[in-house]
Predict the 3D structure of the following.
Amino acid sequence: MNGLKYLPTVSVLVLTSSVSVPAYAQQTTEASNPASRSTSSSNPADAAGASATASNGSSGKSRLEEIVVTAQRRSEKLQNVPIAVTALGIKDIQQKGLSGTLELAAAVPNLTIMKSGPSILNPFIRGVGEIAGGPNDEPSVATYVDGVYIASPSAAATMEFNNIDRVEVLKGPQGTLFGRNATGGVIQIITRDPSHTPGFDGSVEYGNYRDVRTNAYLTTGITSWAATDLAVYYENQMDGYGENFTTHTPTFTHRDFAVRSKTFLTPTATTQIRISADYSKTNADSQFQLAQGVIGIDGVTTYPGRYNGSSDLDFVNRVKQIGGSVRIDQDLGAFRIASISAYRHNDIFFTFDQDLTPLPAVPVYLSEFQHNFSQELQLLSPSQSKINWLLGAFYYNSKAGEDPVRLAGAASAPLPYEDINADQHTISKSLYGQGTVEVLTGLKLTAGLRYTDEKQAVDGDFSSVSGILAGPFHQESKFKKFTWRAAMDYSFAQNIHGYISYNRGIKSGGFNLFTPQAVGYKPERLDAYEVGLKSELFDRHVRLNVAAFYYDYANVQVSNVVAGAVMTTNAAKARMYGLDADLTVSVNDRISFSGGLGLLNARYRDFPNALTYGAQPGLQETIPNARGNHTPLAAPVTGSFTANYKVPLAGTSLMFTGTVIYNDGSYKDVANRLKYPSYTLLNGSIGWTRDDQHLGIHVWIKNATNALYYIDRYETIFGDIQQAAPPRTYGVTLSTKF
């Protein structure tokens, strides 16, 4: 059977976003708009008071603004939430020179993001993440947009809009309050609500490599109780970073289009309805290459250069997705009800040359799909309740598969091709609840529990021009699990808050679609112990949040290349411990600083018979036990520092910003042979903006020193392969707002 003779290493996760993520702490003119204030909560009934505020007094203008997050599915001040959370807005992202989720790791301590293929990302938080990227491979770090779970590994452009209110990164397992279980953490995207006041917010950007990016957001009222908006995003990078020397085509080009709309209805004073829809299309061309020193299977091909390749098949990626949701919030006085109904559909096609040589040896053509329906119901305590409680139920129905994976060339000989047809059907049902009560003045206790009942089934076969070669295959698996959370937090002073917590989270198991006849992998389980301190010092001019953690990780899902196919198996045990720190300093109205530091030690405690490969083609071995080795993408040190200097002018201002980003490097393989080297990046910008925001011009540069680092590296049976991260890029952005 030839069904295992391929390497689908680019079947991976899309999670991209643009710089156009509006500030979580809205500007004063925006905060005064009631419609804008309501967007600060994923529980709209909690929206009152969710806007940013500054203290009065002579130094009020330079004090740090309050940040309101919904990490516990209700609006709370960031400083009062007993969870490690990093909240980001457009100001942070622009000032740090970030252009998407791939670079989000630069602003979030202990967040590492791997990119596999043209546009597919895999986030790791504190060393916990998912390398595999098949359509059924749900990430260990879950993503939600306005409370809707984004399941598909290729669902990216949902975040490429300038209608986003804020991004929240929650660290650690989220096993009680969110729809799907997640062991690594949660990335929450909260979008603006439409405003009754007509408005426009847009930008046009041009960068080197003929990169054109446009963003537009329009909002207006329809009736006295209805408003709507429209967000449109388009980007086209026409010149590539390099060239495929075999096909003579450019590498690393892409073209993206996305549109999203939300309608906000308030038919009564106690009813809110949000109807959202989105569509996006991504076309990208990237290039894997053999790593330095690796000789291809043709005995000739070797390292072609930083962004070049020698494969006989171009790496193309085409992703289409469409989604819609309806959220209804009803305040009944004694309690509130929230209903979130959502449907999403994704189609993916990409090509991959496994051997990365001019030989037509192992070309792969993948057509994939994923669609799911989810329904969540919540009962919430009234806004002024002394006990904050939430009860919920979640239903999830998903189908994802290969339609098909086509293997050709020498790998399917003597047949002209071989198709792998497989899909996984998942049905998950959950009941959950959590409550927080103040037992003594300043002392609160939180307890939460979740029960999950899940069933998965896989069907598949191998076929060719002559019909079915093997199969059909059918397998099923079921599990029922409890997860929980317990926390205690205490206010030592008005602006000093501490907490301790214990959480258990799980991530579902599944099947390897490329080998539907093989045994699947088990759910992984993570127990997290955390202690944190959140403080605002020096009359709220300094904000310092620190968290220390210890993870006990069991049945760790690990992806390896087995006989040419990406296979997920379970390692026995791992443990992680470390520290996160976020610092923000407002010196005065002109000078501010921000930074983050992540320290991490993540190693396997038990991993018998771990599979690994050598750097050159054909070298494969099994390690008796990988105990003591570092887990993948667990950089020991990550950090960033940003400095801002503002120069007020007559009715306008200049802003000078510089950011330094550091990553200590990490390993990709369980043998700790193939490494992501350490790197330091320097970003900067100079911006001029009118005080009324009607016009702004920003000149920016990213990776100013043109540092070499990697967004993906793999060890395979064909040798080590890799993709370099973007080189030095620079450009200018024109923006306007009315």
Q: What stands out?
A: The radius of gyration is 25 Å. The chain has one domain: 28-737. Helices lie at 28-31, 34-37, 90-95.
